[in-house]
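User: Quick sanity check before I run a bigger batch. Here is a single chain. Can you write out its predicted 3D structure?
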Amino acid sequence: MTYDLYIGDRTFSSWSLRGWLMFEKFDLPVRTHLVGLYSGTMAQDLASLAPARLVPVVRASDGLVIGESLAIAETLAERHPHNGLWPEDGAQRARARWLCAEMVAGFSALRAECPMQLRHVNSGFTASDAVRSDLNRIETLWQGAWDLCGSDAGWLFGDYSLADVFFAPVAARIVGYDLAVSQTARAYCMRVISDPAVIAWRNAGLEVTYDPFPYEVYAPIAPWPIP
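Assistant: Done. Predicted structure follows.
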């Protein structure tokens, strides 16, 4: 069963990164299609996938169309129960679902003020009180996950899971805007952006140039820490 995944620009589309990681990290066969998120053709590109209007969108080989990241995640986990998308332990699995749901519904200040970009580090960015509040909540959720699984040295629940998929763009935001977090949280962010799948995603995005750059640049800027 090969899926078709429709995504936006890799450098900027945080939801597309989540969608792609669901397939890449759990060995699910997929064909990727880029839609015109910045060229203005997205509505036309997604017309055959109605009622979808945002990326990512998935079409299964049986014709089923799935939109919204949580729905995609749950459908893939249901169809591929042996691929380890959720933690095996029931308590950890429930907590991982909680984290993913809160990610989808929350952190509006971080998402609005720090749109994901994978080009450089905005060292000149100053976090607002609302962004700092979001970061504090994120660290609370991450630490709770590590406490539950008994380790803070790796992924959120020991083995890689959908929770790490959903927080990958958050880690990229923390790095990309040089946001102040604990040493443990920073180490997790570096683990996320050092993952070979994330590096491959970023490198593919770097093949596209943007003039002008679609988001504000906060000087001084520094190079992305992972080449």
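The longest helix spans residues 129-149.

User: Great, the batch can go ahead then.
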